Amino acid sequence: QLQLQESGPGLVKPSETLSLTCTVSGGSISSSTYYWGWIRQPPGKGLEWIGIIYYTGNTNYNPSLKSRVTISVDTSKNQFSLNLTSVTAADTAVYYCARAGLELGSYYFDYWGQGSLVTVSS
Amino acid sequence: SYELTQPPSVSVSPGQTARITCSGDALPKEYGYWYQQKPGQAPVLLIYKDRERPSGIPERFSGSSSGTTVTLTISGVQAEDEADYYCQSADITRTYPVVFGGGTKLTVL
After folding, report:
1. In the Cβ-directed half-sphere of B76, how many Cα atoms lie within 13 Å?
2. How confident is the model over B38-70, as pLDDT tens digits?
3. Distance (Å, rounded) from C-alpha A31 to C-alpha A20?
4. Burial of A80: CB neighbours in 10 Å, binned 0-12, 13-18, 19+
5. Is there a contact between B28 and A104 (Cβ–Cβ < 8 Å)?
6. What is the pLDDT of residues B7-26, one digit of tens each?
7. Cα–Cα distance measured from residue A61 to residue A50, given in angstroms and rounded to the nearest whole number
8. Span A67-118, pLDDT tens digits
9. Could you give the CA distance from residue B18 to residue B46 in angstroms, rounded to a whole number?
10. Contact A47 B103 (CB under 8 A)
């Protein structure tokens, strides 16, 4: 059974960089069929897509966050990571990693991590 | 940016049928997807490619598509179905290959 687990600091100071890692177990991140993504959810609000990466390193980012986001992959560790720079309180959210499929022009997420709450505060 | 529109809330009595709609201009050409999210939990994929159900999802959950609207139907609603439901798709230009609707809170009366 595929499992994803987010890890990283739960508290980040304003203007600093938020860094999270997602560890995949029960399956290979190097699968040619799937992609790997990050989604976030501010407290009490809806879901927001952050970005997607393929095991080759190809990425696709939400245009509204693109200038601040970097997603990378480490196939040797079966992990992928998120960096979000210059954070503000508006970046406070539960961050989810997930496995993604692609149909026509849309990705969709069939396995999700449990989520990691990141608070931006001094 | 592209938007998917859902009703903020839907209420239904146990055993009845709940229908949650999601509207977007690109839906005639892009698939719709549905997720269920219970408090404190990660979303769960309920429906993919408009109407397909992943293994392990009860048959009472079904999806359909007509024009610019996709619909999630929950037949014989149970108390455990009370949750937030999100639709998801992409914009026609694929500038936004992932767009989520605002979510619908399903209340089981």
Report:
1. 4
2. 999 999 999 999 999 999 999 999 999 999 999
3. 21
4. buried
5. no
6. 999 999 999 999 999 999 99
7. 6
8. 999 999 999 999 999 999 999 999 999 999 999 999 888 899 999 999 999 9
9. 15
10. yes
Do β-strands A79-84 and B9-12 pair in parallel, antiparallel, or remain unpaired? unpaired
Would you list which residues of chain A are within 8 Å, Cβ to Cβ, of chain B? 37, 39, 46-49, 52, 60, 62-64, 96, 101, 103-110, 112-115
A98-110: b or e for each residue (b if 16 or more CB lie within 10 Å)? Answer: bbbbbeebbbbbe
Chain B positions touching A117 (Cβ under 8 A) are: none
Which chain B residues are within 8 Å of A64, Cβ to Cβ?
1
Mean pLDDT along residues A9-17: 98
Q: What is the 3-state secondary structure (H, E, C) of chain A?
A: CCEEEEECCCEECCCCCEEEEEEEECCCCCCCCCEEEEEEECCCCCCEEEEEECCCCCEEECCCCHHHEEEEEECCCCEEEEEECCCCHHHCEEEEEEEEEEECCEEEEEEECCCEEEEECC
d(C-alpha B51, C-alpha B53), whole Å = 7
B74-92 confidence digits (pLDDT tens): 999 999 999 999 999 998 8
Q: What is the pLDDT at residue A105?
A: 82
Structure tokens that stand for A41 in this block: 């959810």
